[in-house]
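As agreed, record copied across for absentees:
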Amino acid sequence: MKRKKRMTQDRVVNVLFHLIAVVMILLVVYPLWFVIIASFSNPADVASGKVWLWPNSIDIRGYEKLFEQKQIWRSYGNTILYTLVGTLVALFVNIPAGYAMSRKDMPYRKCINVFYIIPMFVSGGLIPTYLVVKGFGLLDTFWVMVIPFAVSTYNIIVARTFFESSLPESLWEAAQIDGCGTLRYFIQFAVPLSKAVIAVVGLWTAVGLWNSWFNALIYLQNENLIPLQLLLRRILIANESLLGAATGTMAQELRQLSDMMKYGSIVVSTLPIMALYPFLQKYFNQGVMIGAVKG
């Protein structure tokens, strides 16, 4: 009887947990789905609450107005280049740094740890950073979006934790016996065994670069170099300015068009990252769990 009662309780708990999981999934997925269907819906239907699961009528004026901007494709290309090149540079910098910090025999390891950690809490500020960027001749160039902010202390710590917990010291000792040096060991052994943390750091960096607009606002003046996010921001601000100057029926039409362009800009700016994430999700989860459980 006790065993049967326990099995019944376990089933009830499992059902409860599944229900909670379904509710949490809906809370996360539905807002994303609503933004997508709202971008294709008549804004009057959205404002009146008629749009729930699918559009009542298809209206793509928001996308048409958005893609009428001549610069949007160039900005899209810029963002893709910034993301690809910036992610590669960040991996090239942060992964080796994390591996070096994981080596217990590295000289002055504690001092270098402090050197990396201090900038996490104390920043030089916007004006000194601007002067440094200008002093290196990176201002208003492609590389200003890639090089100055490639080093991430947090990513280095994640990589260090992964290497410390996942690469056994016996592997390094065996490699030394076979005449393997530090650089060769890192390239031939450490990197192939670190796909999880590379995917994690790469994903975090790519998302940050894709969504970045503030650095472009501060350091870029050349219109041919601005990223997608900054261009979308300018378009939405311009629409709000026109809306403030309009009255009557024109104001209502502009409000509806502005809302459609907002939803459309969200879809346009997030769709590539959303499409990429499922392919990296298993590495992302694996890397986070290894660092959390074994660290």
Summary: Residues 27 and 127 are 41 Å apart (CA to CA). The longest helix spans residues 248-294.
